[in-house]
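Supplementary Methods, section 5.1.

A reviewer requested that the exact input to the structure prediction be made available. We therefore reproduce it here, unchanged from the version used in the analyses.
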Amino acid sequence: MAQESPKLPAVHEAWLPREHALHRPRHGGKQLTAIACALVFFVAPTLSWVFGARPSEIENHELAAFPSLADGWSFFTDLPAWATDQLVFRSGAIAAADAVSQGLFGEPAPLDQGTAPDAGPLPGLPLPPPDAGGVEDSGPSDGGAGYRRVVRGADGWLYYGYDADAKCSPVRPMDETVAKLGELREAVESSGRRFVFVVAPDKSTVVPEYLPGNYPGKDCATAASGEVWRKLTEEAGALDLRGPLRAAQQETGSPIYPPNDTHWTDEGSVVLTRELAEAVEPGTTLTWRSERTSQYTIDADLPPLLGKSGEKTNTAYDLRPDGRTDRTAAPIGSIDTPAYRVSVPVTGTVDEQVLIFGDSFTETSSRYLPGGFANLTMLAYPSVNSDPDTAAKAFADSQVVVVETVERAASSGNLPFLEDDFIASARKAMAARPIR
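The structure derived from this sequence is encoded token-by-token as follows.
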């Protein structure tokens, strides 16, 4: 006769005698406290919204949206991110933590530590890949292991931590990056088009004098920098802006990058415009004139990575390619989709269909680039990830393809336009419409 399986008790396990093997306590007050805390955390944002309080974006990324029930279990895993972003007192709490740290310990709170923020590269910062990790400690002079979103320098200067991390922990080897750039160049030039590759130097490269003596990745980044630039300029044929930027800096008598932002000032944008026009059509800038016109103040991009806010003041210029007519334009808020600027050509402008396929440095310079190019398309290269067909079509619609990227992205090889699928797609689109 088969032995019957033991039956579970007919009562809840918490109601069993304490000596019973299946007894499990409810944890009493502790459990109730945890439930109450969870309810406050998730309900507080909703109540705050009802009474008119609104959260703000403090870490250079869009606030998380309320998850959908249609997402299944993701609804529960995404809910904490939404609740965290919706806490209206969050920025005040971060500021308070920093103030306490400064007052008690004489140093800022470690808000610059941890992984990179969840933000897109445009507008704002060209950011590391989502899985970017920390920098391995290569010795005491590295200042300790671990990636820093922001490196605090002398006199209040801030630097983007990924400048160093990109060289220390690249996504792909530099030799592979150079080889892929060669494939892209060959695809463009074999269709009869011209190809220009330009690298915007990191702030830490052009204005290194305010960097601290020690910071994570200092040794390996410094050791790699020379070889990175040699390969980019000599092997990949990159247009080198370091000299022109330093010359402009010396002429104005002030740094060409602001203390609290990772992008150059308007002087840097004028340098980029001039150097690109000369690269496409040598001698075209001989008639150019440019003078200061005004100052303007906008948000800086590095303080939000520390949970703070900050502004930078830039000097605006005119740009008269023929020496008389100002051809600057209103800056473009986003180049995630193709942005077109077409004007009647004058002396000193390049009159060809030019695509500038770039990052936030192209966007930052969008006030001045139309002054050098009469038929211009600007498009952010991260669009390759979301709409590769539009990016390939932009290549085919152009006579000159300019690819611009910041030094840190080139150093890491984190460039979506170097993927085989996109190079093949762009090659096919351009080959179908060759330029004779």
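Confidence is low (pLDDT under 50) at residues 57-61, 114-126, 129-145. These observations are discussed further in the main text.
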